[in-house]
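Hello forum,

I keep getting stuck at the same step: I have a sequence, I want structure tokens, and every attempt I make locally crashes halfway through. Rather than fight my setup again tonight, could one of you with a working pipeline run this one for me? It's a single chain of 143 residues.
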Amino acid sequence: MKFFPAVAALSAFLAGVSAQSINIGYPQDGATVQAGSNLTVEIDRPNTLSGSTEIAVVIGVQSCASSPCHSPADGLGNILYNGGYKPQYNQPPDSKPPHQNFTVTIPSTLAKGKALLGVAHMTLIGAGAAPILETRNITLNVV
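Reply #2:
Ran it on my machine without issues. Output:
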């Protein structure tokens, strides 16, 4: 009988964690970018009713032109941004979730071909301030 409450509590916790997850809203997966150019990276966080404290995001890029890409959880490659994250709604409000845009520079020395744009996100959720670290990534085509 104690099994059901434990499963229910775990499900509620996982739902809360899922609601705090970020997404890379821009650029789209498979986008073409030029080495040495600026790129806007939009990090979206779906609206949530549970309390959270945003800590930071780290954005990095790694070349996969001559070898397979590694998971961002194993390393982000060249760090393009490392700092605060304060997602906001657009003003006036539209259909976008809370988000923040970051302008980063794709290294001019990044090899042409496939690259992985990775984002690490740190947040504290709930009354107990449980720390959550997650990673997301998309593939870019560097020209």
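The first helix runs from residue 3 to 19. If your local run keeps crashing, start a new thread with the error log.
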